[in-house]
């Protein structure tokens, strides 16, 4: 029987395994050095905050794997030897594979800061990171202040987490406003204010210079590049993005860039080896998408696609329209299509913000053709299905604004804002029209 | 890393500490309880009305104050910080103490009311019950009973914890309106109106205690002979009430459930649900989400329903039989009527919805039908008294096992251990009926938002009915489950805005296809190929 081996039990690897099982009777093994069972990485924060226990983050009950004849192996793959079709584990074990799927995920970025490997300096990615957080920041008695470096999605999650234990947080963000590299200014500024409302010491335009150690090799303080200021702290969270976790493949002969290079069929340069999820780097660009996409649902989709290929139905990876979501403390964020922080030359934005400073939207459209390009929403829930359809149907901005209520996904009895949004939009248009006259 | 530091992590956690206001609130609540306990020891309390007012105000006010301390400085958003660290909400020491205390209270209430001071055979009340006499006199004109004490405390709990809930879900209008609704129905329909109606009673006129919203089969004694007799004797008013009771079961409820799902009752009106949603809110995460729990649930709750149908039929048939002259309905007609009704109901479901029933559900349905019809037939042919068991015995056994032990002692007493809706999920025959309809003939569903789910598990964790919401959401499937009471909390706690409770067309409501949007359409076709 053909043996399919998958490195990584995250969403990508597990989805691949589940679908291979649906389609075939092949022998399947999933390897992970992190945890025995698949858990939802996106829920790590809720465990620390006490919303859930680790058990709750597992999407499948423990009996699931045996029932579906998916073998689980805990161990760290040290090297992959493609010409023998073998994996070598750090404990000396070996395993043969017929086909190999690499779904090794990411690791937190470290940019060579002095002191970045001290005790109490960590990222937030793995279950081990969560455990380490419980050691270095269980309470505000043990951790009198934490410094977070890097204002992205994981940084703000870490800030929210520490807040729930009343640990004072200093948040170093390189950009002028929070997540300004991705979000247009109006949204960024609103989020910056929201973060400050949660009593976070938010430092915009601030870079980390170095991390200082105490006599035991544990973090004592950080120094800020711009001002030279020293901030005493017991924990430093490094959340300046992630990059593919591929160090163990250096000797394997598989073509690597920042990630594992794959074609549109998710095949690597080596026969019978595939790569999916966070660790895969697309050789060919797909629309406006980046070559490496470290998000949950693309990992899932790659898993579904590669399962088809492995089960004798070679299929191209074709993600549909871009979408994503996140949450910034109490403000939910959804995005459909493309809204760029730095507008492309053809791109025009319409921005609306509610007076309460927790809700806003930005709609992007084409200057000339008025084609609807994408939308960011904050504090309002929108229907994925509707925007997906509008993007496919190539609707124009006027249509989208006029029919916004069709896309509303807020719970029943919630106040609706489509009227306000539409009025603001028509005002803006008539103003511009007058200007042109 | 020294072990000392590690140990501190077990003690120095902040989210489970409580602030000054919360402490004061707790002290007030304890004071209220203390007065009631003192009364229980027959400590002499002149001016009972004053003491009762103090006790209830302290109790309710303490809870409201605690809520104020918890949420006053918080922005609108999810408020589940530290739930699994706090002893009371994570089956810790406090939870067990609370569970044992509550269970003890229920046992005394149901089986040893004299310990609370109930005056037997016309004797004056003493103890706790006497403390509540003044309020009872104001409302109904009579002295209090253990049920009046219970009803008062129950109402205070729903009101005070309701305020807490409303503050916790600041910014969520669905949760707030729903809670105002249960607070209203409890206070007006379950508590004040029936008490006031008792004032109408005199020597030649009496109505049974009647909570209009408490329908059969939740109200298992709805059709007991003494109630029916009282209704009939009360002539017009009584008949109106009786008719209303029957209409709500066979007309009002099916229409509302068709339009809005069982939530119209379970999380907007019902008193059991009301308590679970307010006082029980801190325990919703304790429900068991495993597949095995779901299997047990389905068998147990439907068995209770069958038990309740059989019992009620037996009770009614019996008094129709031996008091034949008093009622226009005869025993035979009644029994045949019930059999025909159930048979037709079954046939309709089978004809229209067979495809939607899982295999075990089909076997179960057939099995149950055969049992019921068999029992009815036995009764029909076996003279008056016997229904395999004697109807009266069956009825008291049902009252004891389901009405007292299951709904009270286990259902509420064990809130801090099994979660707040064990009764609603496993034991309530009303929930079973509404659930069946919700699954088969209703516009209600929870819609999932395309491909946005990140499988985090918040929804499943906080579903009090133990539904594994995530299992559906991560596949992009609608959630159409008979047990869902539409509390909306899964939608409230989802950090990605994936879930929405909706009433819309029945077409395509249950779609087990994986329609994860944003994906390649051809791939989706392949994935859904079975
Ligand atoms: C805190 C946090 C929050 C997030 N929130 C969101 C969100 O809200 N929305 C979103 O879209 N995305 C989010 N993400 C990103 C998302 O979780 C990832 O994109 C996704 O988990 C990647 O899945 P994967 O299967 O590719 O890899 P992973 O989940 O990283 O799984 C890889 C596994 O492989 C194991 N492994 C790697 N190398 C080896 C080896 N040599 N031997 C053995 N085992 C190995 C790793 O230990 C790991 O368990 C978040 C990420 C984090 C860290
Ligand atoms: S599925 Fe959602 S709405 Fe239904 S009972 Fe569970 S939490 Fe409440
Ligand atoms: S539906 Fe929401 S709460 Fe439930 S698992 Fe998905 S993202 Fe989490």
Quick structural summary:
The complex is a heterodimer of chains A (437) and B (530). Chain A has 437 residues and is an alpha/beta fold.
Q: Total strand count of chain B, please?
A: 4
Please name the fourth-level CATH homologous superfamily of the largest domain in chain A.
FAD/NAD(P)-binding domain
What spatial form of chain A do the alpha-carbon principal axes imply?
Answer: globular
* Strand order in the largest sheet of chain B: 1-2
- Unreliable stretches of chain A, pLDDT < 50, 5 or more residues? none
Total domain modules of chain B = 3
Helix content of chain B: 55-70%
Provide the list of bound ligands, each named once.
Answer: flavin-adenine dinucleotide, iron/sulfur cluster
Largest sheet composition of chain A: 5 strands, parallel
Predict the CATH topology of the largest domain in chain A.
Answer: FAD/NAD(P)-binding domain
Return the average pLDDT of chain A rounded to an integer: 96
Largest sheet of chain B: 2 strands, antiparallel
Question: Explain this structure to me?
Answer:
The complex is a heterodimer of chains A (437) and B (530). The relative contact order of chain A is 0.11. With 437 residues, chain A is α/β, with parallel strands linked by helices. Chain A has three domains: 3-107 and 243-310, 3-Layer(bba) Sandwich (FAD/NAD(P)-binding domain), CATH 3.50.50; 121-240, FAD/NAD(P)-binding domain (3-Layer(bba) Sandwich), CATH 3.50.50; 323-436, FAD/NAD-linked reductase, C-terminal dimerisation domain (Enolase-like, domain 1), CATH 3.30.390. Chain A is globular, with a radius of gyration of 24 Å. Chain A has helices at residues 11-23, 44-48, 63-67, 127-136, 153-164, 185-197, 296-310, 384-392, 397-402, 418-436, and strands at residues 3-7, 27-32, 70-74, 77-81, 86-89, 94-96, 99-102, 106-108, 121-122, 146-149, 169-173, 201-204, 208-213, 219-224, 230-232, 235-238, 242-244, 260-262, 273-275, 280-282, 323-328, 331-337, 347-353, 360-366, 372-378. The longest helix of chain A has 19 residues, at 418-436. In chain A, strands 3-2-1-7-19 form a five-stranded parallel beta sheet. A five-stranded parallel beta sheet of chain A has the order 9-16-10-11-12, covered by helices on one side. Chain A has a five-stranded antiparallel beta sheet with strand order 21-22-25-24-23, sandwiched between helices. Chain A is built from ten helices and 25 strands. Chain B is an all-alpha fold and 530 residues long. Chain B folds into three domains: 9-200, no CATH class; 291-432, no CATH class; 444-529, Alpha-Beta Plaits. Chain B has 23 helices and four strands. In chain B, the strands form two sheets. In chain B, strands 1-2 form a two-stranded antiparallel ribbon. In chain B, α4 (93-111) runs antiparallel to α16 and α14 runs antiparallel to α15. Chain B starts with a helix and ends with a helix. Mean pLDDT of chain B is 87; it is low at 1-14. Classes of the chains: A alpha/beta (437), B mainly alpha (530). At the A-B interface, α7, β21 and α8 of A face α1, α8, α20, α22 and β4 of B. Flavin-adenine dinucleotide is lined by residues 7-13, 31-34, 41-42, 44, 76-77, 103-106, 124-125, 154, 157, 245, 248, 277-278, 294-297, 299, 324, 326 of chain A.
């Amino acid at each position: 029987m053909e043996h399919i081996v998958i490195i990584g039990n995250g969403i990508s690897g597990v989805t691949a395994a589940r679908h291979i099982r649906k389609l075939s009777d092949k022998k399947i093994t999933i390897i992970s050095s992190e945890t025995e069972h698949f858990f939802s990485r996106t829920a790590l924060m809720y465990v620390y905050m006490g919303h859930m226990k680790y058990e709750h983050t597992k999407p499948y009950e423990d009996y699931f794997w045996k029932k579906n004849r998916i073998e689980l192996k805990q161990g760290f793959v040290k090297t992959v030897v493609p010409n023998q079709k073998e994996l070598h584990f750090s404990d000396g074990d070996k395993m043969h594979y017929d086909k190999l799927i690499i779904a090794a995920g990411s690791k937190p970025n470290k940019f060579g800061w002095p002191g970045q490997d001290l005790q109490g300096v960590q990222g937030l990615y793995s279950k081990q990171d969560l455990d380490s957080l419980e050691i270095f920041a269980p309470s505000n008695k043990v951790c009198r202040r934490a410094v977070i470096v890097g204002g992205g999605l994981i940084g703000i999650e870490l800030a929210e987490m520490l807040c729930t234990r009343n640990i004072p947080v200093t948040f170093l963000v390189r950009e002028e406003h929070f997540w300004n590299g991705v979000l247009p200014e109006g949204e960024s500024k609103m989020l910056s204010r929201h973060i400050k409302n949660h009593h976070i010491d938010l430092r915009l335009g601030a870079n980390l210079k170095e991390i200082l150690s105490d006599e035991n090799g544990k973090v004592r303080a950080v120094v800020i590049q711009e001002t030279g200021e020293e901030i005493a702290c017991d924990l430093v969270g490094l959340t300046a993005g992630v990059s593919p976790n591929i160090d163990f493949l250096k000797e394997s002969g598989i073509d690597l860039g920042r990630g594992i290079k794959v074609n549109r069929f998710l095949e690597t340069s080596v026969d019978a080896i595939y790569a999916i999820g966070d660790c895969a780097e697309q050789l060919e660009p797909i629309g406006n998408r980046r070559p490496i996409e470290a998000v949950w649902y693309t990992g899932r989709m790659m898993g579904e696609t590669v399962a088809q290929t492995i089960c004798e139905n070679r299929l191209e990876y074709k993600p549909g329209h871009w979408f994503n979501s996140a949450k910034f403390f109490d403000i939910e964020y959804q995005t459909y299509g493309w809204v760029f922080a730095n507008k492309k030359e053809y791109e025009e934005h319409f921005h609306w913000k509610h007076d309460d400073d927790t809700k806003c939207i930005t709609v992007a459209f084409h200057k000339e053709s008025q084609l609807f390009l994408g939308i960011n929403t904050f504090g309002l829930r929108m229907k994925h299905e509707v925007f997906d359809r509008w993007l496919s149907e190539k609707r124009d901005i006027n249509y989208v604004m006029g029919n916004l209520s069709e896309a509303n996904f807020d719970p029943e009895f919630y106040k609706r804002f489509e009227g306000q949004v539409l009025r603001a939009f028509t005002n803006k248009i008539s103003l511009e029209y007058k200007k042109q006259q | 890393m020294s072990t000392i530091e590690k140990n501190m992590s077990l003690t120095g956690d902040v989210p489970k500490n409580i602030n000054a206001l919360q402490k004061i609130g707790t002290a007030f609540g304890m004071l209220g309880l203390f007065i009631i306990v003192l009364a229980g020891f027959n400590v002499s309390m002149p001016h009972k009305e004053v003491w009762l007012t103090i006790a209830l105000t302290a109790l309710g006010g303490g809870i409201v104050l605690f809520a104020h301390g918890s949420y006053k400085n918080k922005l609108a958003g999810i408020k589940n910080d530290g739930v699994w660290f706090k002893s009371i909400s994570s089956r810790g020491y406090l939870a067990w103490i609370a569970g044992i205390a509550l269970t003890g209270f229920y046992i005394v209430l149901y089986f040893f009311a004299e310990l609370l001071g109930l005056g037997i055979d016309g004797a004056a009340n003493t103890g706790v019950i006497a403390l509540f006499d003044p309020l009872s006199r104001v409302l109904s004109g009579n002295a209090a009973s253990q049920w009046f004490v219970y009803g008062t405390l129950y109402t205070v709990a729903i009101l005070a914890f309701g305020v807490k809930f409303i503050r916790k879900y600041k910014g969520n209008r669905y949760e707030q309106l729903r809670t105002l609704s249960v607070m209203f129905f409890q206070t007006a329909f379950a508590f004040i109106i029936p008490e006031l109606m008792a004032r109408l009673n005199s020597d030649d006129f009496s109505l049974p205690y009647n909570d209009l919203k408490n329908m059969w089969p939740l109200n298992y004694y709805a059709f007991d002979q003494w109630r029916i007799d009282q209704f009939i004797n009360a002539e017009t008013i009584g008949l109106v009430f009786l008719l209303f009771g029957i209409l709500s079961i066979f007309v009002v409820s099916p229409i509302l459930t068709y339009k809005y799902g069982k939530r119209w009752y379970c999380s907007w009106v019902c008193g059991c649900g009301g308590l679970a949603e307010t006082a029980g809110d801190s325990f919703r995460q304790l429900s068991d989400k495993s597949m095995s729990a779901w299997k047990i649930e389905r068998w147990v709750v439907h068995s209770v329903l069958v038990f309740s149908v059989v019992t009620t039929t037996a009770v009614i048939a019996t008094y129709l039989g031996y008091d034949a002259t008093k009622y226009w309905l005869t025993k035979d007609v009644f029994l045949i009527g019930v059999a025909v009704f159930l048979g037709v109901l079954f046939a309709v479901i089978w004809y229209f919805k067979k495809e939607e029933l899982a295999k075990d559900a089909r076997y179960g349905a057939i099995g149950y039908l055969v049992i019921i019809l068999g029992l009815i037939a036995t009764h029909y042919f076996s003279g008056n008294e016997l229904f395999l068991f004697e109807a009266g015995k069956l009825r008291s056994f049902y009252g004891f096992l389901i009405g007292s032990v299951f709904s009270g002692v286990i259902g509420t007493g064990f809130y801090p251990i099994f979660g707040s809706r064990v009764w609603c999920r496993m034991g309530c025959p009303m929930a079973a009926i509404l659930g069946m309809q919700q699954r088969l003939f209703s516009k209600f569903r929870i819609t999932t938002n395309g491909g946005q789910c990140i499988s985090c598990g918040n929804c499943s964790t906080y579903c009090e009915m133990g539904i594994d919401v995530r299992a559906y959401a991560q596949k992009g499937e609608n959630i159409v489950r008979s047990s869902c009471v539409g509390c909306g909390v899964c939608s409230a706690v989802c950090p990605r805005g994936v879930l929405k409770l909706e009433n819309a067309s029945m077409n395509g409501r249950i779609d087990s296809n994986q329609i994860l949007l944003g994906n390649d359409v051809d791939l989706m076709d392949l994935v859904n190929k079975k």
